[in-house]
Design brief:
The chain is mainly α. Helix content is 74%, strand content 0%.
Length: 197
């Protein structure tokens, strides 16, 4: 890394290293030295941009959520909305090696948020943004006549997000027993039922 790299680039590099280390070793066994080594920088440089391990960890989960939001933003919004909802929610499923690593990291951070109010707030904010996005898609489906008028959009959006979280958890817990193909099929079946097919 050159001396002229800007702070955002350095912070992003350190966050990517953090994700890699946490995915491999878990949050409890991750040290600043591990992150620095993986990022190819000194511990001093990591400490220059992050005053504490907690600050680094909070930045790390924000980084994971930002990557997820970039994936969702890249999903083209086009009819039928049912397909858009499937593609949108698939971006959260561990269907690639990169997303499987992110899932392990996300689960580590979720556990940490049980005792860390700052991290819990980050999770809450990200979940609220996701719910609003899913609600917006379902409202659009109702306006287009794809989703029945009587469907409670807010409740169904929350249920869909919880279902996808459950798929991710089962995949993480059972591995190949609940593989990528099976969770993708389960998501599609869930959305088909929601849309009345």
């Amino acid at each position: 890394m050159t001396q002229h790299a800007d702070a955002d680039t350095r912070r992003g590099q350190v966050a990517a290293a953090l994700v890699s280390v946490v995915a491999e070793r878990g949050l409890a066994r991750t040290t600043l030295a591990d992150v620095a080594r993986t990022a190819g920088v000194s511990v001093g440089l990591v400490q220059r941009y992050f005053r504490s391990k907690d600050e680094l960890l909070r930045f790390g989960i924000e980084y994971v959520y930002r990557r997820a939001e970039e994936r969702t933003a890249a999903v083209p919004v086009q009819p039928p909305i049912r397909e858009f909802v499937v593609r949108l929610m698939e971006t959260f499923l561990p269907l690639t090696d990169e997303r499987r690593a992110e899932l392990r990291v996300w689960l580590s951070f979720v556990q940490a948020s049980l005792t860390d109010a700052g991290m819990a707030a980050i999770h809450r904010d990200a979940t609220t943004r996701l719910l609003r996005g899913v609600e917006e898609a379902l409202w659009g489906a109702q306006r287009a006549g794809e989703l029945a008028a009587g469907v409670d959009v807010e409740e169904e959006a929350a249920a869909l997000v919880a279902f996808v979280d459950g798929l991710c958890l089962h995949h993480a817990a059972t591995g190949e027993g609940f593989d990528a193909s099976r969770i993708a099929t389960a998501l599609r079946a869930y959305v088909d039922r929601l849309f009345g097919r």
